[in-house]
Amino acid sequence: MEVKDIKANQGNIDLVLEVVEKEEPREFEKFGKKGKVCNAQVKDGSGIIKLTLWNDDVGKIRVGDKIHLHNGWCSAYKDEKQLSTGKFGTIEVLESASPEVFSNDPGVFRQNEAEEGSVKEDSDAAAMDDIEEEFVG
Fold it and tell me: Are 46 and 2 in contact (CB under 8 A)?
């Protein structure tokens, strides 16, 4: 199935999608229970569609992730089709866009800088050798 084939009020939707945009989550209260909701734009090779994320799914995906919507549901609001997991569907993250890194070591975040600056480091090392020769020699 592809995005272009989805119809409003259709269930059992199974798609692999890329997350291209994600709005800020909103909190709500219904029947005395608190929850979160968030809209995202997702796409495949045939088109783009809105995906509504509820509660735990809000924090599960990020922009750039490749996801698999299992047994999803499509509704329509103001003539716009909107996907969701519905009552029985699930979202699986197939490929994460960028892994989250939790660390109190600031050097972790400099890893890419070190890789990009390896040429600079080599020239800095050569300059240090020249300085040492001046003082030692």
Answer: yes
Domain shared by 53 and 90, yes or no: yes
Residue 115 lies in a domain: yes
pTM over 0.85: no
| pLDDT value at 122 more than 60 | no
Q: Are 51 and 69 in contact (CB under 8 A)?
A: yes
Predicted local confidence at residue 102, as pLDDT: 66
Please list, in sequence order, all residues whose beta carbon lies within 8 angstroms of the beta carbon of residue 109, skipping any fewer than 6 positions away: 101, 103
Q: 83: domain CATH number?
A: 2.40.50.140
Q: What is the pLDDT of residue 97?
A: 81
Cα 83 to Cα 70: distance, rounded to the nearest angstrom = 11
